[in-house]
Amino acid sequence: MYQGFLTDVDGVNLGHYQDKKAATGVSVAIFPEGATCGVDVRGSAPGTRETDLLKAENLVEKVHGVLLSGGSSYGLSAASGIIKYLEEKNIGMDVSVCKVPIIVGAVIFDLGIGNPFVRPDHEMGYKASLNISDNDKSLGNIGAGCGASVGKILGNDYAMKSGIGQSSLKVGDLLVSSITVLNAFGDIFDYEKSIQIAGCYDRKNYNFLSTEDLYKNMNSDYNAFNRATNTTISLVTTNALLTKANCNKVSQMAHDGYARAINPVHTMFDGDTIFTCSTGKVKADVSLVGMLAAKSIARSIANAIYCSDASYGLISYKEISK
Fold first, then answer.
1. Mean per-residue pLDDT for 184-210?
2. Strand partners, 33
3. Mean pLDDT highest for which of 45-59, 178-192, 258-272?
4. Edge-to-edge strands of the sheet including 187-190?
5. Pairwise CA distance, residues 229 & 254, whole Å
């Protein structure tokens, strides 16, 4: 397992809430003082909230929370619970008559794992906000990772359990950290060890089946049921002093971490999205921050596999590595 957590960066709080029976949940990062934020969406089936605000030319400079949720598009409603919490704490953008909390977010599709009629909502978002900590070390089957899975080209009988992973890196005074909710269509690799650690798995013969090879043979015959049932979403945080444009660039570079650890990635069946939030004042080269973000993302992906437990009929890395 790789070291570090999202909240290693000052000014970041992280909380989770999940319905284990329904196999879905919410993770939320809250920035009491606000954070400069950017985003890069590479998957072609995204479910997102307020990402247009993060364009460099648009008005709002800081966000107060980032929602990562299960439940597909239903899960975006959890943002209202986060807004309620922040309003109670008097946190938000001052518009003279009140303070308006700015929440951005993205969702994964986990409706095929548990109960598709129970999804993250206002209440879950609020409860996740109540659970925030500046020292969160949650990994695996928790929050938005509760119903996450990978390697789904042949359906759930061959898929593996995934979840949430975290990681951080430090260079001098510069900190770059990440959290990933791993719910990918493709196979998963620990790129630093050059090994496959999860994906489409044949339980009878105890071996991985290459998603790339299977997809080549299926071509246009790929089962439509499996389409758009994926998506990996992440948040990068850093104490670097960054503009919105810088944060967008870091998010762009951070997707290299996806490409190192997931194959195939950024498909028509994924909604892959990475947010970057800057909370600090450490002067740093944007490309260096982006390079570290990509490495942290790849490590958080590996940790999501290493730390998840078998559940909902899905096997885990822990089982097959015994």
1. 96
2. none
3. 178-192
4. 195-198, 187-190, 262-263
5. 23
Strand 273-282, strand 201-202: pairing: unpaired
Kindly tell me if the per-residue pLDDT of 228 is higher than 70: no
The DSSP output letter for 97 is: S
CB 272: neighbour CB atoms within 10 A? 27
Q: Which CATH class is domain 13-321?
A: alpha beta
Average pLDDT over residues 98-106: 96
pLDDT of residue 12: 97
pTM, to two decimals: 0.95
Task: Give the burial class of 286: count Cβ atoms within 10 A of its Cβ; 0-12 exposed, 13-18 middle, 19 or more buried.
Answer: middle
Domain boundaries, the chain: 13-321
Report residue 272 as tokens.
Answer: 């892959």
The alpha carbon torsion through 75, 119, 167, 312 (nearest 10 deg) reads -150
pLDDT for the residue numbered 83: 98
Residue 138's contacts (CB-CB under 8 Å, 6 or more residues apart) are: 14, 16, 27, 164, 166
Cis peptide before 32 (omega within 30 of 0): no
> Residue range 254-267: average pLDDT?
95
Cα(205)–Cα(228) distance, integer angstroms? 28
Identify the CA nearest to 242 among candidates 82, 54, 4: 54
Kindly give, in sequence order, each residue whose CB lies less than 8 Å from that of residue 252, ignoring residues fewer than 6 positions away.
40, 290
In angstroms, rounded to a whole number, what is the distance separating the alpha carbons of residues 168 and 240?
A: 13
